[in-house]
Design a protein that fits this description.
alpha+beta, 5 helices, 238 residues, globular, 4-stranded antiparallel beta sheet
Length: 238
């Protein structure tokens, strides 16, 4: 993801999303079951030149939009990328923050977000020093049992056992008689920072496991076992 003022781009840390509903990346696609980013703003299975290539593609895309339409795109340029045997390829573009990728990137952001938005609007993003913390992040979603094909709706969720419930970000829920009620899609996510992905994952897992309700989450996102499998696959692809 990159902030864009129509000409200048400021790149956010790379984030890995897990779309599949179940452990080990199995099951149907979802809106995203969880994400992680590494302390160096890359990912454990990527090379420096692959990050650079994705950023270059975002820059060229912004330039092409300006040349094609006569004015620049202002906003978040969110590119989905895949590394293949023949290099980095674009899967899709969105003109918005990713969900839940924004949870990772914005948790690390040190620069005032309003200042970034203002610089994008007036076309002065190039002169703004956009900084992110050098920490890893992990985000996990709790979703209704049956999601995404036939999710439970209408039952309540209890977050009272989560020590610091300010870390909870709510999604598809309703409020009824002071209770949180499942509305059918992704219910809530918890995001934490750490010096390593493994450290952040332990904290997230400890907290999200204490959410009570007709819910499930992927325990494997951010764990070394899943990341190592990704590294092995990437080495075979290259």
């Amino acid at each position: 993801m990159s902030f864009c003022d129509g000409k200048n781009l400021k790149h956010m840390p790379a984030v890995q999303d897990h779309k599949r509903a179940f452990e080990d990346d199995l099951g149907p696609n979802t809106g995203g079951m969880g994400t992680y980013s590494d302390a160096d703003h890359s990912l454990p299975f990527l090379r420096k030149e692959e990050i650079q290539k994705a950023q270059d593609i975002n820059q060229r895309t912004a330039e092409a939009l300006r040349e094609e339409f006569g004015y620049g795109f202002k906003g978040v340029l969110y590119g989905g990328f895949m590394v293949t045997k023949s290099g980095v390829k674009v899967i899709e573009y969105n003109a918005r923050f990713g969900d839940p990728e924004a949870m990772n990137a914005l948790s690390l952001l040190e620069t005032d977000l309003l200042a970034i938005f203002n610089a994008m609007v007036i076309g002065e993003l190039g002169g703004l020093d956009v900084k992110f913390k050098n920490q890893a992040t992990v985000c996990k979603y709790a979703v209704p049992i049956g999601y995404p094909t036939d999710p439970i709706k209408g039952s309540s969720v209890d977050v009272s056992m989560v020590a610091d419930n300010q870390v909870i970000s709510y999604g598809s829920v309703n409020a009824q008689n002071d209770k949180i009620i499942l509305a059918g899609s992704r219910t809530l996510c918890i995001t934490e920072l750490g010096d390593t992905i493994a450290e952040a994952e332990l904290v997230v897992e400890e907290k999200i496991s204490k959410v009570i309700g007709s819910l499930f989450h992927r325990t494997d996102i951010g764990k070394n076992e899943l990341i190592n499998k990704k590294i092995e696959r990437m080495n075979k692809i290259r």
